[in-house]
Design a protein that fits this description.
This is ASCH domain-containing protein. By secondary structure, the protein is α+β, with helices and mostly antiparallel strands. The protein has one domain: Hypothetical protein (Archaeosine Trna-guanine Transglycosylase, Chain: A, domain 4), CATH 2.30.130. The chain is built from 4 helices and 5 strands, in the order E-H-E-E-E-H-H-H-E. A 5-stranded mixed β-sheet has the order 1-3-4-5-2, with no helix packed on it. The radius of gyration is 14 Å and the shape is globular. The termini are close together.
């Protein structure tokens, strides 16, 4: 089973308020795939272990879209901000602010970049 890092959205994963994530790459995922959500998957220091955040997540949908889709249709943008776990967030609760945060945390990404949108569901059992 592959690991997927949620270091920026750890609390959203733990609380279950996030059911969509956006990634550069990861287009190979298919509905039904199980992924282990972890704190950090790469750049571990010697002796550091992968820390699982909860039971595996099941992939529901995978598609690519320009990041700016969240800006071009604000109803969609607000819904996606909610699904990313940022509804009502004081800094990133607006689609424009969320997209700027995403671009700042993903080197070379702009609102016009094609990003993989991954929808997932939580499972209750460790696999």
């Amino acid at each position: 089973m592959r690991n997927m890092s949620f270091s920026i959205t750890t609390e959203q994963i733990k609380s279950g308020t996030k059911d969509v994530t956006r990634r550069s790459g990861w287009i190979f995922l298919k509905p039904g795939d199980l992924i282990r959500p972890v704190l950090k998957a790469r750049g571990l220091r010697p002796g550091e272990k992968i820390q699982s955040l909860r039971a595996p997540i099941r992939i529901v949908d995978v598609r690519q879209e320009p990041l700016r889709a969240m800006l071009d249709d604000l109803d969609y943008g607000y819904d996606e901000v909610r699904r990313e776990g940022y509804e009502g967030h004081p800094q990133y609760g607006h689609p424009d602010a969320w997209v700027k945060m995403f671009c700042a945390s993903h080197k070379g990404t702009t609102p016009d970049s094609l990003i993989t949108r991954i929808e997932f569901a939580y499972t209750d059992t460790e696999n």
